[in-house]
Amino acid sequence: MSQTSKATPFNNCIRRELLAQTFYLHPHAAIYWEEQKTLLVADLHLGKATHFRRHGLAVPTYVQDETLEKLTGLLLDFKPDRLLMLGDLFHSDYNPEWEDFADLVMAFSHVKFALVPGNHDRLTYHQYEKYKIQVHEEPYFEGPFAFSHHPLEQEVLLREKRADLRKAGLNSEPVTKHSGAPEKEVEPQTPAYNLAGHVHPAVMLQGKRDRMRLPCYYFGENAGLLPAFGAFTGMYTIQPVKGDNVFVLTGNKVMEVG
Fold first, then answer.
1. What share of the chain is helix, strand, coil (3-state, %, to 5)?
2. Taking the mean position of all CA atoms in its chain, how far away is CA 175?
3. Are 53 and 60 in contact (CB under 8 A)?
4. Domain residues for 98?
5. Who has greater pLDDT, 64 or 11?
6. What are the pLDDT digits (tens) for 67-83?
7. Burial class (CB in 10 A: 0-12, 13-18, 19+), 147
8. Which of 7, 51, 60, 222 is buried deepest, with most CB atoms within 10 A?
9. CA distances from 258 to 121, 191, 206, 245 (A)
10. Is residue 21, in this structure, part of any structural domain at all?
11. Is 36 exposed, middle or buried (0-12, 13-18, 19+ CB in 10 A)?
12. Half-sphere exposure of 234 toward its Cβ, with a 13 Å CA cutoff?
């Protein structure tokens, strides 16, 4: 008698090892970081519908509901300890749609919500403090990664990592022995791996007759990009090079493309 396997949120994910850390790439544009029990998302752009309607554009309200329903489902399925959002959480000054997100935050009060702000995050810090949303300056370093909204150059990341070490009270300047010979520097010789949003990455897939553009996860040698999570966002077609790893979202599946 055959036994039906139990459905889990990992069933439709692709498991990827990156710098000795385990990521599960979900078809709904979220990464589950296993070691930290953290769900990573970028570019929700909540509040955008109301923002556009204020300027005379008839954007349907369901786009906000769709984004929040998708996020709720992921929080219920993965049961993370933390949700880390890589910028453009709220695409507006304060408007009533913020309270819809606040309701979700309060419903998952056992989850830590954290934000690396993006260029569209214009809310006052009072709103984040009110709902205990932790705000990290860009870039935010944790483990082997540097999390940001905007993709950052390697030189910038190395400089910021040094500054982060100093802030933590670690000596990032060369240490000199009594003999005068310099010891090994207590500082990163290479920057952390950058994981960012902002771009809304997509790739163009070419068939025999048709072409299709799909959102994707992108992992290069030194940096990676998350697809936009929000329902009301555009896409930017990237041009991967040899050695890059790209995973497209195809509805309820994630698929690696060469």
1. 20, 30, 50
2. 36
3. no
4. 14-168+187-193
5. 11
6. 999 999 999 999 999 99
7. buried
8. 51
9. 35, 27, 12, 7
10. yes
11. middle
12. 4
CATH code at position 26: 3.60.21
Section 229-254 average pLDDT: 92
If one counts the domains in the chain, the total is 1
Domain for residue 29, yes or no? Answer: yes
The answer to whether 199 and 238 have CB atoms below 8 angstroms apart is yes
How high does pLDDT run on average in the chain? Answer: 86
Number of helices (H), then strands (E), in the chain = 5, 16
DSSP letter string, 132-196: TEEE-PSSEEETTEEE-SS---HHHHHHHHHHHHHHTT---SPPB-TTS-B---SS-SSPPEEEE
Q: Whole-angstrom Cα distance, residue 237 to residue 251? A: 18
Q: What per-residue confidence (pLDDT) applies to 74? A: 98
Top-confidence range, 53-67, 172-186, 210-224: 210-224
Pairwise CA distance, residues 31 & 13, whole Å: 9
Q: Encoding tokens for residue 40?
A: 């990573």
Which 8-state DSSP code applies to residue 120?
A: T
Which position has the higher pLDDT, 182 or 45?
45
Residue type, 258: G
The verdict on residue 238 lying in a domain is: no
Look at residue 246 and tell me if it is in a domain.
no
Which amino acid would we find at residue 221? E
Q: Say yes or no to pLDDT of 250 above 90.
A: yes
